[in-house]
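Lecture 7 notes: from sequence to structure.
We start with the chain below.
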Amino acid sequence: LLFYEMDDNEKWNEVIPKALSKPDIARLINDYFISIKVSLESKDRIIVQDLVNQKVPFSLYFLDEEGSLLPFLKSAMPVSMDSVIKYALKTYQNRALVQQIEKTYFDKGNKNIEDLKKLIQAKTDLGLDTKLLLTEFINLLPRDSFNTGSVRFLMRQSPAFGSNAYQRAVNSANFSEAWWPMALQERIEINQRIIKKSTNIAITNRDMNYVKSVVQFARFTCNTEKDKLYAERTVLMNYYMHTGDTIRYMEIAAMFNDDY
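Predicted structure tokens for the same chain:
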């Protein structure tokens, strides 16, 4: 459990420790987590910003033993600290279970396509990397069985732009039949996840050529020139901010703020 003191919210910096120190909450944390506080004076603040991939981090994060972020409980209504912590713990336990299922799947000789699909979907739902499993799915599925349902399944995993899974889906003769009947909101959400996942890959690899491809994809998902420009600048600002290119980030941010 990582508590990051916020620069501009003194009240929040007081509320969170009080909530975490309540006996039942403290007991839950002590049983399952290692707590780390990153104060306003800490030299580790820049490390946290890189870790959570945010220039201005939120105050509370949960990470597994490998340093991967656990998803935060999302709710339209206020939730208790107890619910937040139990959600993180449940997510961690589910991840461990899925990883064990994955190991069992690859250890056994008789691989089943339906078992693989369930495993892929479970990892997608938990925000885990599915690149290896999607490659396994493509290799395991007979070419003449790559139908509308298979294309739709691949796209619902939001494969990274340009990846084998992405190319196999969008280049399929069944793509239009699989993609366009899906609800508009679902298609929008899939595209947004593809953009986010692909941008993060570009950031990790510091790959400017790849992020340019992601920009083109982001523009393609929009209808008006105004929306296309918004999508382009959003991707580039994210890339420049997290790769430390402050000058280019500020140049685009200035235009972004003027227009929006």
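Points to note: The chain has a mean pLDDT of 86. The longest strand covers residues 2-4.
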